[in-house]
Design brief:
The complex is a heterodimer of chains A (358) and B (157). Chain A is mainly alpha-helical and 358 residues long. Chain A is 61% helix and 6% strand. Classes of the chains: A mainly alpha (358), B alpha+beta (157). The complex binds iron/sulfur cluster (2 copies).
């Protein structure tokens, strides 16, 4: 009974974290783009005249979207049209269940890992769920029964399928180095040190794999410079026939994908919740000396480290989105099939050679 | 290969430029939050309803009719502005003026601002300098179209 309760609490906490971060990413996206372009950004939303940098803006947006008319075009396939945004949303939201937010906490006799479910195949699970999210795009493009959305949906599908391959292949090298698909195990492996001072993070062992994964994952989020399915300026995109909260779900899916990609980058390549040189009882500096901490402080440090890394990658992705123009479709396909996939193959072979020598 | 390297350098340059803007502007925003006054601002935005930019002297804003010393409009109802107006939004009805100098005056002078395209031809056409567009008013949106029909009372200032 108490086990179920604990899992339930973990689910609620993780979802609240996920959705709040999603909401505030919309705010961050506006603010960051504004600061990059020497503007101020949305700062008018206020509650009783209190503005604090427009921090209430996401809630204003949410309220606006909830009260908009739920419009379904007469020519669309109604059931699938309604189903599509929920499919998109669901398959992204469920990936959070495999992400480790921190090591375990001890309450009395009980150890609770800060992860909803520690799958044996956590990594595969996340990749599979991200791929299933494509169905939302195809369905929305097709069920809207509109040529533009269909083109958007097809482009989205083609893009995601080709980048899925590179995404998977780029991780094989990583799995060879950290021999597990269990995300908590991968994070634990990254707690060790190489040469006695460098944290054994994925980025140091797999720099090429990291680059390929980064590009493929950026393409996976369907945002500029890879926003071909949407392409506001030309084909409008697969969710052109949506309005109100359903459109909002697609938008949230976009931002949630950013977070998922950030958590994956953090977990796989930047040590997850590992703080450099920190073990379960405190810091052990490589130059000697140590700083011992209580259990709860260690947990706080770990969760904070995880969050900071995730925030950084969210920030970086938004920066990239506001820096680069869009690829042409053939360039996109070229980059996927002719650059990223060969590079990830090279990475696998290189990793194999180095590992057999060492 | 060399070409690809060139692209790569440009890609890096792009992100350096945007992140430089981000960090420099963020620095000045933070200084402002801390209450430190700097000459340079983090953003070039003018927060419109609270802060207003000065209107240039030649800016064509809401029309106004000039008055003579006795408060009557200078307009002599010659219909030149009505004729020249490309949007056909001026309506003038002439009436006889007892003053022999003037002979005519507008008993009705209506401008439908909703149709006006602010070309300023009416100002150019007027032989009496009776109509000008220098009131400096630029925010005259209304809730109905009728709010935007300005008659003599509203125009004569
Ligand atoms: S500004 Fe142009 S459009 Fe407007 S009333 Fe004068 S002549 Fe007509
Ligand atoms: S051109 Fe001048 S004088 Fe003639 S009708 Fe128009 S405002 Fe009056």
């Amino acid at each position: 009974m108490i086990e179920i309760l604990i899992v339930f609490i973990k689910i609620v906490c993780a979802l609240v974290w996920f959705l709040l971060l999603t909401l505030y990413l919309t705010w961050l996206e506006r603010k960051e783009s504004a600061v990059i372009q020497d503007r101020i950004g949305a700062n008018r939303a206020s509650i009783f005249g209190i503005r604090i940098l427009g921090l209430f803006q996401p809630f204003a947006d949410a309220i606006k979207m909830i009260f908009k008319e739920d419009f379904v075009p007469a020519f669309s396939r109604k059931f699938l049209h309604t189903l599509a945004p929920f499919i998109s949303f669901f398959f992204v939201a469920i990936t959070i269940s495999a992400i480790p937010f921190g090591d375990s906490i001890r309450i009395g006799e009980r150890t609770i890992s800060l992860q909803i479910l520690d799958f044996n195949v956590g990594l595969l699970f996340i990749l599979a769920m991200l791929s299933l999210g494509i169905y939302g795009i195809i369905l929305s493009g097709w069920a809207s029964n509109n040529r533009y959305t269909l083109i958007g949906g097809l482009r989205g599908t083609a893009q995601l399928i080709s980048y899925e391959v590179a995404l998977g292949l780029s991780l094989i090298g990583l799995i060879m180095v950290f021999p597990s698909l269990k995300l908590s195990a991968i994070v634990h492996y990254q707690g060790e040190l190489i040469f006695g001072f460098l944290p054994k993070w994925g980025i140091f062992l797999q720099p090429l794999g990291f680059l390929v994964f980064l590009f493929a994952a950026l393409a996976e989020t369907k945002r500029a410079p890879f926003d071909l399915p949407e392409a506001e300026s030309e084909i409008i995109g697969f969710f052109a026939e949506y309005g109100g909260l359903k459109w909002g779900l697609f938008m949230m899916t976009d931002f949630m994908e950013i977070i998922v990609v950030s958590t994956l980058l953090t977990t796989l390549f930047f040590g997850g919740w590992q703080v450099p040189w920190m073990a379960a009882d405190g810091f052990h500096w490589p130059w000697g000396g140590e700083w011992l901490l209580s259990h709860w402080l260690v947990v706080v440090f770990q969760v904070a480290a995880f969050n900071i890394k995730v925030f950084f990658f969210c920030w970086l992705q938004i920066l990239i989105r506001w820096t680069y123009p869009r690829f042409r479709y053939d360039q996109l396909m070229d980059m996927g099939w002719k650059l990223l996939i060969p590079l990830s193959l090279v990475n696998i072979v290189g990793t194999g050679i180095v590992m057999s020598i060492l | 290969m060399i070409k690809a390297l060139g692209y790569f350098i440009e890609i890096i340059r792009g992100i350096v430029i945007t992140s430089r803007h981000f960090f420099v502007n963020m620095f000045f925003h933070i200084l402002k939050v801390l209450g430190i006054k700097t000459k340079r601002k983090g953003a070039v935005t003018i927060q419109y309803p609270e802060q207003k930019k000065e209107i240039a002297a030649r800016h064509r804003s809401l029309h106004r009719l000039m008055a003579r010393e006795d408060g009557k409009p200078r307009c002599v109802a010659c219909m030149l502005c009505v004729t020249v107006c490309p949007s056909e939004c001026i309506y003038v009805e002439a009436a006889e003026d007892p003053d022999l100098e003037m002979q005519k005056y507008p008993s009705k002078f209506i401008i439908d601002i909703g149709r006006c395209c602010f070309c300023g031809f009416c100002v150019e056409a007027c032989p009496e300098d009776a109509i000008r567009m220098d009131s400096g008013e630029i925010d005259f949106a209304g809730y109905t179209r009728d709010d935007l029909v300005y008659d003599l009372d509203k125009l004569l200032r």
